[in-house]
Design brief:
Blueprint (H helix, E strand, L loop, with lengths): L2 H17 L24 E3 L19 E3 L1 H9 L2 H7 L2 H8 L8 H10 L15 H19 L4 H6 L3 E4 L5 H6 L1 H4 L4 H10 L6 E6 L4 H21 L8 E4 L5 H9 L3 E7 L10 E7 L10 E7 L6 H18 L4 H7 L1
Parallel strand pairs: 3-5, 4-5, 4-6
Antiparallel strand pairs: 1-2, 6-7, 7-8
Helix pairs in contact: 1-11, 1-13, 4-5, 11-13
The structure holds cobalamin.
The site of cobalamin has 17 residues, from strand 8.
Pathway: Amine and polyamine degradation; ethanolamine degradation
Keywords: Bacterial microcompartment, Cobalamin, Cobalt, Lyase
Family: Belongs to the EutC family.
Length: 339
């Protein structure tokens, strides 16, 4: 999918939201796909094209955007329904995804398992988990550790034209033990931001690895591009984006003091769980400053291919920014003003 297609998807989502007036009770219309553990993982395709600059129209470069592979869906459609019946019998699904042997109510069990990514219906071998379950657990745990200790792919940051700054911490162990250091910019970082960034933009986008570098590697291109397009299509100007190495959510307060944006959108890696190690969050705040209270922030979490799809998340975030600007408030303040 190229820039035009992302623009199309972003516009579709925006128009769907404006049809519903993005009222609180109607925002649930946003298409959110939940992970179905009874089906194979959606394939992700990478239509790689030259590097892109999301906020520069003049560029002829095509963006790199990963999307679900519709080909698998089409191929699936083409299969005869009898083939499908053969492949998708409950027995097959049970064998592939459920550890309980000869369940009394297989359909109900399958139904429950499909409702949650939690490890239910896994069965056991004597008193212990089955080998497959145990290995999967070990695998997911290792992925979580890798996500916390890993580093964001420099190529992605280059592609998105994000320069990097550091917080007061450069060691991951210290980062984990001292969240307060991750909330403060280093002195060099402050100088660099002063030199390089536009002051008082309407929106300041910040990217940070936070607790999952994988979350950035896997999702940032799509979220960033569609967020940029969503804001652009609403005529909202964006400041100079950058990457904060080993940041915490409240680091946005120092950025707010320095650059004085109206709204900060911080795209940051979430603490990995044993279901997904690559989940991204967007924390938003109206005029964050040192001393901002948590209730004035808001978060859209669970952005990854098994949660809120990144392109949709970006488009949706643009509409949240619009709302924050309209009410000049975020978090609890926004809810109160909105009534
Ligand atoms: C860890 C965590 C916490 C920890 C944060 C402490 C810490 N330093 O790590 C604790 C237990 C304190 C916590 C509390 C709450 N949390 Co919490 N939390 C998470 C979790 C598991 C990971 C967050 C993360 O990795 N952030 C990124 C790292 C880098 O951030 P950080 O700087 O280290 O820590 C900051 C953030 O974690 C932030 N934060 C944590 N939770 C929330 C919730 C909201 C609404 C906001 C604005 C900020 C926020 O506060 C920390 C200090 O600044 C997410 C689940 C997820 N999938 O994201 C839920 C999650 C973000 N929390 C949630 C909620 C509802 C809350 C509470 C409102 C619960 C309550 N009723 O009290 C409070 C609000 C706290 C606040 N700061 O305002 C929801 C948010 C739902 C939503 N979309 O609004 C989530 C998505 C869980 C869920 N699925 O329901 N949380």
């Amino acid at each position: 999918m190229d820039r035009e297609l992302v623009e199309k998807v972003t516009k579709m989502i925006l128009s769907k939201m404006s049809e519903s007036g993005i009222r609180r009770d109607e925002t649930r219309d946003v298409t959110v796909k939940f992970w179905n553990h009874g089906t194979p993982k959606p394939e992700v395709t990478n239509l790689t094209t030259p590097p892109f600059q999301p906020f520069q129209d003049e560029s002829n470069d095509k963006p790199t955007v990963k999307l679900y592979n519709n080909k698998t869906v089409e191929a699936e459609k083409e299969k005869s329904s009898s083939d499908k019946r053969k492949e998708n019998t409950t027995d097959d699904m049970i064998e592939n995804t459920i550890g309980i042997e000869n369940p009394i109510h297989p359909d109900e069990l399958m139904n429950l398992v499909n409702k949650t990514p939690a490890r239910i219906g896994i069965g056991r071998a004597g008193l212990r988990p089955k080998t497959k379950t145990w290995l999967k657990f070990r695998f997911d745990h290792a992925a979580a550790v890798d996500a916390v200790y890993g580093h964001v792919d420099e190529e992605i940051l280059k592609k998105l034209n994000l320069f990097s700054v550091n917080t007061k911490v450069d060691d991951k162990e210290v980062y984990i033990r001292r969240p307060d250091f991750g909330r403060k910019l280093s002195d060099e970082a402050k100088q660099l931001l002063e030199q390089k960034c536009i002051k008082s933009p309407t929106v300041q986008i910040i990217v940070s690895d936070g607790l999952s570098s994988k979350a950035i590697d896997k999702n940032i291109e799509d979220v960033y591009l569609s967020l940029g397009q969503s804001l652009k299509s609403q005529g909202i100007d964006v400041g100079t984006p950058f990457f904060i190495n080993k940041g915490r959510v409240a680091v946005m307060d120092e950025v707010g003091e320095l650059l004085k944006p109206k709204v900060v959108v911080l795209l940051i890696g979430e603490r990995p769980g044993l279901v997904s190690a690559e989940s991204l969050s967007a924390y938003l705040c109206y005029e964050p400053r040192i001393g901002t209270i948590e209730a004035d922030r808001m978060v859209i979490s669970n952005i990854h291919r098994g949660g809120i799809p990144p392109v949709e998340a970006g488009a949706y975030l643009g509409t949240v920014v619009q709302k924050i600007l309209k009410y000049e408030a975020s978090g609890v303040g926004l809810v109160q003003r909105e009534g």
